Automatic annotation (TrEMBL):
Belongs to the AHA1 family. Residues 11-140 form the Activator of Hsp90 ATPase homologue 1/2-like C-terminal domain. It comes from Brevibacillus brevis (strain 47 / JCM 6285 / NBRC 100599). CDD domains: SRPBCC_CalC_Aha1-like_GntR-HTH (cd08893). This is Activator of Hsp90 ATPase homologue 1/2-like C-terminal domain-containing protein. It comes from the Bacteria.
Amino acid sequence: MDLRFDFYIGATPEQVWHALTSDEGVKSTFFGCTIRSTFQVGDEMAYVGPGKAGDDTVHVYGKILQFEPHHIFSFTEHPGPAYYENHAELQSRVTITLEPVGGCTKLTLIQDQWTENHPSHASASNNWPMMLSSIKTYAETGKTLDFGF
């Protein structure tokens, strides 16, 4: 049930990190969302943007588990309240690691520790490749992919 994606990106870990954590990068690659966080381990974080509950829809939220700039970003993840009434009971863990490989960066994303029968598993398995492809394009070219929505 774990999800794992490996992407090789023709950019430095710093450029990929920028796409993952800066307001500009996140808004460009995470369907118009911003990430609200202090990026301190133990603090809360949320991806917020246009959606079911208006412009400030909380799409996912959780707590920062690890945050080492240009290397690892890990957090617990709950679907936002607009998606499921029992959102607080539904949880998984997302871990993104970056490592230099030659002149590029290997991005590995693992989403694991899913609550049993988590209803977001299917959408996550579809959405992560789109978002990671957009992160790759953004880090390499400064442009984003147009998915038509």
